[in-house]
Amino acid sequence: MEVSKKISIFAARMKTINSHYIPMPEPRWLIVDPNGQIYEQLGTIAVVVEKGNNGIATHSYPVVANAIADVYNDSQEDGLATFCSLAPADGRTLDDVRLEDCFRLCPTNHRVLPYLKFNLMAMKFLSYAGFENFDLAQTIDNLYGCNIRLDFPKENEQTIQLTMSGCAGVVYLESDLGGLYFAIPLSSPVNGNQVEIDSDKILLEAVNQAKAYQKINPNYKFRFTTAIESLQDVIDEVNNNFGNYMDQEG
């Protein structure tokens, strides 16, 4: 749909004061939405809307094209590879996802994602957005499908230290951003301040995320630790059963 028509739809749906289309300069960037879908961002629609007695607000919506793998000359002549984007010039607006809900990955002409930036993306979508729509393994597949190289730690033995973190009413076992990032739901509030811990669900989510990282390095081996005494029994149970679950297919 043309951008002008999209702006008209926004105007009809909200009390719009003004709208602007802002094209992205070259090289454009690849972005990922909370569902793990990757797009090339062609531009942004900025919509200024009324907020009643609270004044006005600006909402930004990405205009995108489906990201596809670049065509490139890999003859390695002079050690260089020539990239060209195949994204169409006409895009569509993600009107159900705001720009701030997405994450900028990398330019289309330099498709490399360091693991620290990957960790920030995982933290944004796992810890903050929740686990309902974001599939870590599928997102990694999508990154590879767009020829994005993941620059991750080479060591096969990965020790993951977990601490306790809270967001949106859920308590997480969370690792820091210095290694492979894990965010595992520990408990949800029940009857006020009481919590209910399901060790089986904790183990399953740890295994799912570990298997996702093995798409990057099949030789990764994981051991979980914690400095929090109250978490030690949970961590011990995860470590004691982790290997058996990792060896299972699927």
What does this structure look like?
The protein is an alpha+beta fold. Helix content is 26%, strand content 36%. It contains five helices and 15 strands. Strands 1, 2, 3, 4, 7 and 8 form a six-stranded antiparallel sheet that branches. A hairpin with a 5-residue loop joins strand 3 and strand 4. Helix 4 packs across helix 5. The longest helix has 16 residues, at 232-247.
The helicity comes to 25-40%
> What structural category characterises the helix and strand content?
alpha+beta
> Any idea what the shape is?
globular
**Could you list the spans in which at least 5 consecutive residues all have pLDDT below 50?**
7-12, 71-89
| Number of DSSP strand runs | 15
Topology:
Elements: H1 3-13, E1 16-23, E2 29-32, E3 38-50, E4 56-66, E5 71-73, E6 82-84, E7 92-93, E8 103-107, E9 112-114, H2 115-128, H3 136-145, E10 149-151, E11 157-167, E12 170-175, E13 183-190, E14 194-197, H4 199-213, E15 221-225, H5 232-247
Parallel strand pairs: 9-10, 11-15
Antiparallel strand pairs: 1-3, 2-3, 2-8, 3-4, 4-7, 5-6, 11-12, 12-13, 13-14
Helix pairs in contact: 3-4, 4-5
Features:
5 helices, 250 residues, six-stranded antiparallel sheet, five-stranded mixed sheet, 36% strand, globular
